[in-house]
Design goal:
The complex is a heterodimer of chains A (112) and B (119). Chain A has 112 residues and is mainly beta. Chain A has no helices and eleven strands. Classes of the chains: A mainly beta (112), B mainly beta (119).
């Protein structure tokens, strides 16, 4: 059974810091890994999607890497801003299904 | 496009009552997913449809839960009878392609969720 874990569970940092959020999964047979952002009281917004054949994806100040063999992904946020405050979820898609298995989430607070 | 639309946004009901949650996916999307989010269990997939047909309902917790998709633009998730442990946020999501088909990495688009409280 695929299990997805994220550490840390919560993070509070001052504005301007570079951050690393971690995601680990137990079964490497995945199609892809995705990072989502969830704001309070709202749905999820996709940030980055890494195909299983890729090593990383970048979008603006965000960079996500994938090491499928070790079952790990990291989301790097450069020069954090208060607007980055949200919960970040990683999710893996299982092979031969259309299911997404979500991690436990990291609640990020960036203060001015 | 207005995105995925869910109604109601908030629902408070008493134990034993029937609850119906509604979802309108993005037009043209062939896949529709229902999720439940709680503090204890996180975000879990309940059921998903492809072209209005249920594909996998293994995440539906018990027979009190049922989901239908009578047409491409509407789906319902029903709980009958409701129990306090059903209190959660229920999300609907839709996507154009399956992950198996989406070489370009098409993603799921989530609605704002329905916050359900069963007293």
């Amino acid at each position: 059974k695929q299990e997805v874990t994220q550490i840390p569970a919560a993070l509070s940092v001052p504005e301007g810091e570079n951050l690393v959020l971690n995601c680990s999964f137990t079964d490497s047979a995945i199609y892809n890994l995705q990072w989502f952002r969830q704001d309070p009281g709202k749905g999820l917004t996709s940030l980055l999607l890494i195909q299983s054949s890729q090593r990383e994806q970048t979008s603006g100040r965000l960079n996500a890497s994938l090491d499928k063999s070790s079952g790990r992904s990291t989301l790097y946020i450069a020069a954090s801003q208060p607007g980055d405050s949200a919960t970040y979820l990683c999710a893996v898609s299982l092979r031969n299904t259309d299911k997404l298995i979500f991690g436990t989430g990291t609640r990020l607070q960036v203060f001015p | 496009d207005a995105g995925v639309i869910q109604s109601p946004r908030h629902e408070v009901t008493e134990m034993g009552q029937e609850v119906t949650l509604r979802c309108k996916p993005i037009s043209g999307h062939d896949y529709l997913f229902w999720y439940r989010q709680t503090m204890m269990r996180g975000l879990e997939l309940l059921i998903y449809f492809n072209n209005n047909v249920p594909i996998d309902d293994s995440g539906m917790p018990e027979d009190r839960f049922s989901a239908k998709m009578p047409n491409a633009s509407f789906s319902t998730l029903k709980i009958q009878p409701s129990e306090p442990r059903d209190s959660a946020v229920y999300f609907c999501a839709s996507s154009l392609f399956s992950y198996a088909q989406a070489a370009s990495g098409e993603t799921q688009y989530f609605g704002p969720g329905t916050r359900l409280l069963v007293l």
